[in-house]
Give the backbone structure.
Amino acid sequence: MAHTVKRVAVVATGTIGASWAAYFLARGLDVEAIDPSPGAEQRLRDAVASHWVALAQQGLASGASQERLHFHVRLEDALAQADFVQENGPERLDFKVDLFRRMDAATPAHVVLASSSSGLAVTDMQKDCTHPGRVVLGHPFNPPHMIPLVEVGGGERTTPQAVDDAMAFYAHIGKRPIQVRREIKGHIANRLQAALWREAFHLVDQGVATVEDIDTAISQGPGLRWALMGPFMNLHLSGGDGGIAHLLAHLGGPIESWWQDLGSPSMTEALQRRVTEGVAQALGDRQASDLVRARDALLIELLRAKQASGLLGQPDPDLDA
């Protein structure tokens, strides 16, 4: 299935949808886009042009062109010839249920319908579909045109073949898909982020550290290692010759005691104000737009280095996709 996908429909072209559209185009695919909001087409084309600089630095596939972007007013026109559908609508269950019902009716029955939903269950989204077996989760990590991760999973009525097809397609175009093997709120990566955010907010709330201190603690400490390997592999290396088994034998108890001492802050107005003021103080005279450019430039270099690494990298994407 992966090699037969030549035309992707991108449904809803806000921040995530536009980023997906740019990535699909950069992989040499045709993109059929649909978004009913006023001015959506021009915003999409502007976003794709903006993302193209970074995509070109990462390497474009054969045939990649912004000219292969086609915008439609009617949902049915965008979906009629699609080989794969990437949905990016608002994170509202009632909206998603109706949208998937309409997409299911307008798309050939063999085509996978993937949702970028950050936390909704596929089981709920597919409930009004005539062909629910082809509805899957295809949740990217923002921004999709740069970050490799995609979380793939199914609902109660999703077929294993649909999940396999989505996994294969994303891998074929250079992504790093992982399978969410059981439906859970927030999937995988967002839950991991949420756990860190909870303790970060708790430490600010308790006066243990400032916003800037916490950002420094992560960005100049474990975040550097986490960008290369995940938490379990890092623990394994921390165990020396004995690996993770040795580490857990010696630090398992202390780690558990830290878990038991973690905070559960409430998002009060006072805490929100404290964090907002802390971010402003840490920013100083710097502009967020400047930080985004600097971040993306370093991210491109990091991705290149990871790809070039025989042990820590990812397989080369198929540039002839």
Confidence is low (pLDDT under 50) at residues 316-321. The radius of gyration is 21 Å.
